[in-house]
TrEMBL record:
Pfam families cross-referenced by the UniProt entry: MC_hydratase
Domain of life: Bacteria
Protein name, as recorded: MaoC family dehydratase
InterPro entries: HotDog_dom_sf, MC_hydratase, MCH/BMMD
Amino acid sequence: MQFGRSYEEFEVGATYKHWPGKTVTEYDDHLFCLLTMNHHPLHLDSHYAEETTQFGKNVVVGNYVYSILLGMSVPDVSGKAIANLEIESLRHVAPTFHGDTLYGETTVLDKWESTSKDDRGVVHVETIGYNQDGTVVCIFRRKVMVPKENYLEARGGEQPGRPAPQPDRNWAGPAATTQD
């Protein structure tokens, strides 16, 4: 399974459909709100939301929607990233509710080589998130610094830093045969 891409693997115009989706529960939303100290009643107080808002029910906090979509994109976009450089824009265009399932996809808008270091480049992408009905709920654009192949090779290849399992009294090693 691929986890991120090198600069050379990105093609302008390519779209990556992130899988699987994520169903947002009331618990997820409330925990995120409490962890981030966002106590707005639109997100936490169902009576308030039912009685005083146009939605008639709690709306999932936007930063959680964004965080889910950003996380979904990591295996396809930024799993090998050196740095996230910029969130250029972030728009919430429709509400997300408890029980909605979010899906996302990212399109490569542009890419260019670094002018200061020849072992990396920048990829400009747009991610859209939509619910189970196909309604787009969130759109954001970001710029990600990603390594070139030579950067990865110099640091251990596809899975840098991954240790090899060491034989010991519990495991004899890959060449040993096991008897039942």
